[in-house]
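#struct-help
A.M.: can someone run this one for me? Single chain, 74 residues.
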Amino acid sequence: MDIRIGIQNTARELAFESNSTAEQIEQQVAQALEKGTPSLVLQDVKGKRVIIPTAGIAYVEIGAEESRRVGFVS
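D.P.: on it. Structure tokens below:
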């Protein structure tokens, strides 16, 4: 699952892949924003934790689960 998070007042976005489902990511983000927790912690495919301050989140884009193609497309 590809995840891209825009941070306020920053030109770049945070992009990484996660093994979590779109529903799990959406639920974690929604809970963090609703409860007003200071940070959101997500995990990438390699097991690294990404800590994002919730006050700075501009947007969260959750990509569709798609298998990677191998070979040439005609």
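A.M.: thanks! The CA atoms of residues 3 and 22 lie 9 Å apart.
D.P.: also worth noting: The radius of gyration is 14 Å.
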